[in-house]
Every structure is written in structure tokens, then in C-alpha cells.
Amino acid sequence: MTKKYLGKPITRNEDPQLLTGQALFVDDVDLPDMLHAAFLRSDYAHAHLKSIDISAALEKPGVVAVYTADSMGDDWAPGPPLVSPPPTVKDVVFNSRRQVPLVKDKIRHVGEAIAVVIAENRYIAEDAAEDILVDLEPLEAVVDLEAALKPDCILIHDDLESNLAAQLVQNKGDYQAAREKADLIIKKHFVIERGAAAAMENRGIVADWDVKSQHLTVWDTTQAPIPIRNGLAARYGLSERQVRVIAPFIGGAFGPKMMMFYPEELVIPWAAIKLGRPVKWIEDRRENFYATTQERIQIHEAEIALTSEGRVLGISDQFLHDTGAYDPYGLTIPLNTQSHLLGVYDIPNFTSEIKVVFTNKVISTPVRGAGRPQGVYAIERLLDMAAKELGMDKVEIRKLNFIPPDAFPYEQNYIDQAFAPLIFDSGNYLPAIEKAAELIGYEQFLKVDQPRYRSEGRHVGIGIVAFPETTGVGPYEGARITIEPSGKVSVATGVGTQGQGHFTTFAQIVADQVGVNPRDVNLVTGDTAEFHWGTGTFASRGAVVAANAIHASAKAVRKKILEHASKHLGAPEGELEIEDGQVRVADIPRMSISLGELAELANPLRGAVEPGTEPGLEATAYFGPQYGATAFGVHSMILEVDVETMTVDILRYVVVEDCGTVLNPLILEGQIHGGISMGIGNSYYEKLVYDDNGQLLNASLADYLIPMATEMPYIEIEHQETPSPLNPLGSKGVGEAGAIPVPALFAQALENALSDYDLEIRETPLSPNRLYELLTSKG
Amino acid sequence: MKLEGEYTFDGPREQVWELVRDPDVLVTALPGAKSLEQVGENEYEGEMNLRVGPVAGVFAGRLVVSNEQPPQSCTLTVEGKGKQGFVDGTGHVNLEELEDNKTLMKYEGDVQVGGKLASVGQRLVDTASKSIIRQGLDTMNKALVARVEARETGEKVDFTPPSESEFAVSVAKDMAGEALSSTTLKWVVGAAIVIILILVLVLINQNGL
């Protein structure tokens, strides 16, 4: 079978609909008799809730209901656990404390929902929410990670002994022995700060309970509609068939829209059932800042042990991870960090301790990168510092330590975020770094360009870093493909879509198998009425797990097409080819039948379907990988710093990305561009600032800076393909790749640009102010 | 947020003390204060309109005076709550006698803000608070001077506190002043003058004068 469409830069199937305003988003759902919800949220980060007086709010004309935790009765319960508890290995601690629908007795972060007003419109609902009187007793807020673990610190969860949410130690080899043998040991303290996902579309939910059919329909900006459907059914005593969750077009998600069972996701459907009327809630931007999850704060004590030649003998890294007020995602993020602490390097000895800490801040859950940028930051920074100490070139020290291409599958000998052994399935790092160095003109820059810039008084530096990205984890996804009598193809899969180009990439896979144009493939994603098996879109798994399920399903349909056509045309299957919607005998083009006609023949109105066969040209198939596929890449940039204003300008940005088989280079590059934009934000612009009282001080897009077109460089991308042996397409994920290496790269390039200042960067993000402070504190 | 500063009143310490402990004067000194009622021996409740940048609203507050050492010092505890957030603060006020019948007030305090006031108004809270305090004290000083004069002359001297809008204008001026550094300000003023001159010339030409 030929690859006519797969791997080609086909423009997106979904764009005409999106660009002409024809796409359905949650806020477009407008039902008769629909009510609107507004939440009353806490202004305090930590407080005992003593009483709530809703009487004034209830009296406001247009208010239909006001609910608090008490109104929910037995339906009030914390969200379900989203990850399985860690295996009972020695000294493991895991205190699962999940977010609640509405605060019952204790407020644990600013923005936590206390009550909800349901009214005839949003204006009334918001006004009435302000009329609710809440009596609370403020408590000292826990903000600093190190202070949170001190024995006398106030407790966020009173039933626990401390603010420790989880603890886990992992070892590989014998780090202490390696340390004793080492010629050079470097120990550093790294701080990675918090950022927002800041998707263009905020969250939103519309729930509709049809009393007569006893059926609940929920439109939700979720990345994982199937788990939400299953969870809602379980919680409210409904059969899964009575609940339909639709995740329509979504304007970006980046992690926080994963299955969370956010308070609103539990309360809005509950209210719709109780009132028997549709209820809509659309998050506003300020709510998004303190009611939607965030990520990244970690504090690392990292150490590297090397020989005098620059060979890394071991890494030790003890780190604190801020989970915020609750920990619904358990150890997922810090385990991802651990999985990336050794980067793409063959390092025999490793010891690392995770301490997950509760604080009075918004809950931390995966945001594009999900722990990986922190791990890559630590290892890449350590390598830079070691290279400097040893007088080595930064490319050379990396080359020297790469996992060699014949070592795959490479077993890391510790566990990943799924508590399964961490294995890098495939990789080929050397050509990637050589290509990147060549494209950016690494040596030429250092030898010729940089001295020239210096002589002109300009501060221009170069950086180059390598990184892995564990992607495409299980458990599984599925798809159903149907050839319709029109000759067009219908595909349904369970994952939701938030801008990843699924309607195109998946169509390309199907088109090659069943011999149609990708424009004739109609895809439905994220509607449990269409397909209700699967988990969701996260962890860079769509192009691996869902794509291979679609591939398997398309192959099964192809088999059916050939069987039916062989019978109809009286020719052996081996002589048939499918192209342009026609099945024909290869050497006799006039002997042919269209896919549409064949579909009708396969679903006869009279006669009998033969025993052992199924009607129609349709197949459903599933795919679950043995373990995740590990992509990788090398990023390089040339950066100029204006030492008067501390503003930066990225003059060049080069990427060599290897995410296995390229499905659609156009979409792949778009993913990388988006990731890099977030990475640049995490390097120099985007920082959520909490004060000592747990107040988020920059909860608006006026104060929280997201890189704009003016901050984005032109990005040059080269593709390398090392297919994954774990799936038939050979694909690996790329959704998070762009964001992962940027803070480490940015720090290296900045240090290089400011080499005459002897600057050492150990934190991200910086900002013009912060950089100025760092430079002046050096004297 | 830490607040500290000092202010010189043009009057003797005893009279400044009386002023500070007089709710009718305090209500005029607080910009936007709508009322201040004594509800206990040293406890007052009231309402105040506050505007900090884009955040505006009514705050209901409680003021408690404690650790009184007349006429020298006291502690003020403020709790304010409104639809736009909350303000909690504690401050210590100390009065020192100076020569020429003047009094030096030193104050220091710690203020917590929360809600929209913190998350959206943060950039302006610092400047706005300082400005509000400075102007409040200016108003009190004017009231003080009026009282001192009244005592001296035996006649009642009229004192009109500034209106809320006058206050708002002054706060806005203070904030603009802080936003633009003095050098920038000169340029802005310079540019404005040039633009006005050009406009005048254009108008003159159009009118054929």
C-alpha cells in the first residue's frame, strides 16, 4: 500500500469551518429555557468557613437557585482519584486529597468555589453572588515550599501530620560510589516557577437534563470526555448510556482541561438535573487564573558527578514539587521530572527524591511539558556548568554522554509516571545535534560572529540543548470507521480535539488505507454518543495511541473492502487496488466498483448476510502500546541582550525534531511553534506571582505576560525520523516537545551573551527586572 | 504590604491627638468615606468608596483603636470587606512634639489586600495607598489649622473637606506622577506644548488671521 497522503503537508480539513465561524464551541450552545451560573469564589487563600448566608442572593429577581456544599447533601464528595496510588515501595508516602465541588468547611486557595448562583442570565447571577455573605476565619497562608514542610507550619489538611502530599525515592546504580570516584562534583540549587496554560478559550460547561428521556447531555471543554461521562454517571447514579458528554471544538487546552472533575464539572450537571433546566457556565479570564489548574513550581538540589574528561558518572537530585491545595494527579508531574533528569544521556548512577508539597495555591496538574521542562532544565544546566568548569565545548560534552544508537531499547532501571519501568524505545541523538549545530552555524558563530558582535558592543550569545520527550502512553484508544453509501468515510474516535489538527492527520491515515481523498473523510472526536471507549487527549498521545487505533481500524475496513470487491469483481484480492474511491483490478481498469456501491452491497435490504460476516464496510479497532514512545530533539538559538533595558531579541531559532514517522509536517511544525512560544514564556515572561498571603497578584492578561508575535522568532525546523518500534505507524508524540527545552536553552544562550558578566542562571522564568538584579548583584 | 512614613502637623500634640480620635474628622480625612460610626468605646464601623485603578467599589470596614497612650501613640486595626475584595491592616501611630508648636506623626503598618483588589489592582495598590494616606493627612492638617485658628481668634473658622471627586483627581495625579519618571514627564509636557502650538498655528491659518 502506498503512502499517498501520510507524511504530506496537507492543509487542515477543519480550517474552513473554524475560520468562517462555523465551528461549535461550548459557549455557542444556546438551549431554550437555559439558565446561567456564576460562582462565588474565595478572596482568601486559607480560612475556616463558618457560615454562609444566601438569603439576600435568593431574593434578587431572576435568581432561580443558590447552592452551597450543604445543598448538595449526599451528592457532595471530593473528585474521584485520577491516577492509581503508587506501588507500596519502601518509604513511599502518598496522601491523596482531592478538590471538592463547593467548599464545606475549609478554604484552601484563592478562587476556590464556595457557592453557585443559578439565574436567568449571567449578569443577575454575578450580581447575586456578590450578595452572598460568608463568615470565615482567615488563617495564615502556606505559600513557600520549604516553609510548608517545617514542623511548626500550619496545616492545610488538618487530618495530616504535615503538608507533605507525597514522597518517593528512586535509585539507579550507586550514586554515592560514583561520587567518590568522580573528579568533579557540581551542586546547584534550581528554582522553576509557576505559569498558566492560558488557553485562548477559557473553560465552559453546558448541562441539559431531559426529564422525559431521563438523559443528561453535557457540553464540556474537556480533553477527556469519556472519563467525564463515566464519572458523572457513577456519581449521580445514572447508567453510562444516560449520559452523553460532548467536547466540541475547543480553543486550546494544554493540560488543565484534562479529566479533573473541576468543581464546575460536578456542580453544573448536578444543578441541571435538580432544576430540570439547562444550565450554562462559561469561565471568565480572571476565574481562569485562579480556578483552572497551573504548573511548574519545583525547587531542585541537583548534583552532577563527572570524570575529568567530561563523562557523567551520576546525577543526584532532591526536589520539592508544589501541588497546590490538592493533589488529584498524585505523582504524575514529579515522576515525569525524574524521567527527564537524565536527559538523553547514558548515566549509570542516579538518586532522586521527590517531595510533593501542599500549599495554599491553585492546584498543580500537567501543563504542556508536565514536569519534563523541569527535569531537562536541571540536567542541561548542570552539563553547561560542568562544561564551563572543565573547559569543554557544550556540544562536545553532550555528544560524549549521549545514549549510543545501538543501546535501544534503553532501560533506565527506574519507574515512570505510570509506575512502569522507564524505557526509551528508540533514539539517534548524534545526527540531531550535528545537524542543529550545522544549521545554526555553531562554530562559525563562536569563532567569527560573536567576536564581531562584541567589537560592536553587542551582547549576542548562542545556546544548544538536547532533550527527550516521553510520549504516547497507554492505556488505549479506539476508533470506528464506516464507508458510507455516498462513498465518503466516517470516522469516530474517543479523544477530544483542542486544535491539534486531528481532522486532518487522522483523515490522511484513513485515506491511504481505504483509497479516498482526505477531504472525503469525516471525523468525529470527543462525543461519547459517537464513540465511548478510550481516555483522552493528553501526554502527547493522540498521534501515537489514537492514530494507531485509527490505522488499525482503517486496515480492518480495507480488508473488508477487498473481500467484498474480490467476490463482486471475481478477481483475487491480491490483484485489486483501491484508489480515488474505486476498487479495481490492477491491470484491467474497467473492472471496477466504487466504494459507495460496495458499501450498499455490504448492507443489503434483501437476502441474508452470510454467517460469520458483519453488515456494512465498517470496523472498530483499538490500540494500546506496550509502553510510551520517546521522542527527542535539539534546539539552538542565537539571542541578543540589550544591557541597557535587559530586553532580549532571539535572532535565530533552529529545531531538529525527531518524533518518529512524520504524519503531517505542517501540523507537526505548528505544534513545535506553539510549544516554543510557551517555552519562551516560561523563560522570560510568564510567571504567576503569589504574595505571602497566597494572593495571586497578576491575575489578568495585562499583568501576566504571554509572548506575542513580537517576541516570537522565525523558527527553522529540520525533521529527523527514527520510527518507534512500538506501533505500526512508527509515530511518537510532539504536542509538548516545543515547550520542554526552551528555559534551559534560553539560560545557556543568555549566559553566553553576557559572558563578560560571569552570570550563572539557576532559575526560570527570568524577566528584564530579574536579569538586571542578577547582573547588578554581581557588582 | 508595608506602609510607613511621617507627617508634620502644624499644631500642638494634644490637638492632633484630639483630631485623630474624632470620628467626624477621620471621616473627612478618609477619601471616599461615607460614614464612620462609633459602635464601642474604641470601635468604629463605616463605609468607604475605594477606587484603585480598574477596581472600584464600596468597602464596609471596622476600625479598632487599641494600646492608647494619650496623647502619644495608639494602634489602629482596620478590617475592610467589599465585593471587590478585602483590606486588613494594623498600624501604629506615634506623635512627637516638635518646636514651634508642631507635631511629628510617625506611622508604620502592615496591610493585606485580597480578591480583585490584589489580583487586578496590585500594580496600583502601593501608590494609591500612599497617595490616600498623604492626602488624608493633608486634610487633617487643614482641619487642625482651622481649629487652632478658631481657638486663637475665638471665632469659628470654616473648614470644608475636599469632595470625593477632588480626592480622586489628586490620587490619579499622584499615580500618573509615579508612572512617568520626571525625565519622561518633561518630555511628555514638552511634546504636549509643541502639539498645542502646532494646533494653534493651524487654527490661526485656517481662520486666515
SSE pattern of chain B: EHHEEEEEEHHHH
Counting DSSP H or I runs of 4 or more residues, the number of helices of chain B is 6
Name the CATH superfamily classification of the domain at 424-472 and 629-779 in chain A. Aldehyde oxidase/xanthine dehydrogenase, molybdopterin binding domain
Shape-level CATH architecture of the domain at 424-472 and 629-779 in chain A: 2-Layer Sandwich
Find the count of extended strands of chain B (DSSP E, 2+ residues): 7
Largest sheet of chain A: 7 strands, mixed
Shape of chain A: globular
Which secondary-structure class do the elements of chain B indicate? alpha+beta
CATH class of the domain at 424-472 and 629-779 in chain A: Alpha Beta
Can you walk through the features of this model?
The complex is a heterodimer of chains A (779) and B (209). Chain A is of the alpha+beta class. Chain A has 19 helices and 30 strands. Among the domains of chain A are: 158 residues, 2-Layer Sandwich (Aldehyde Oxidoreductase, domain 4); 200 residues, Aldehyde oxidase/xanthine dehydrogenase, molybdopterin binding domain (Aldehyde Oxidoreductase, domain 4). In chain A, α14 packs parallel to α15. Chain B is an alpha+beta fold and 209 residues long. Chain B contains six helices and seven strands. A seven-stranded antiparallel β-sheet of chain B has the order 1-7-6-5-4-3-2. In chain B, α1 crosses α4 and α2 packs across α4. The model of chain B has no long low-confidence stretch (mean pLDDT 78). At the A-B interface, α8 of A face β6, β7 and α3 of B.
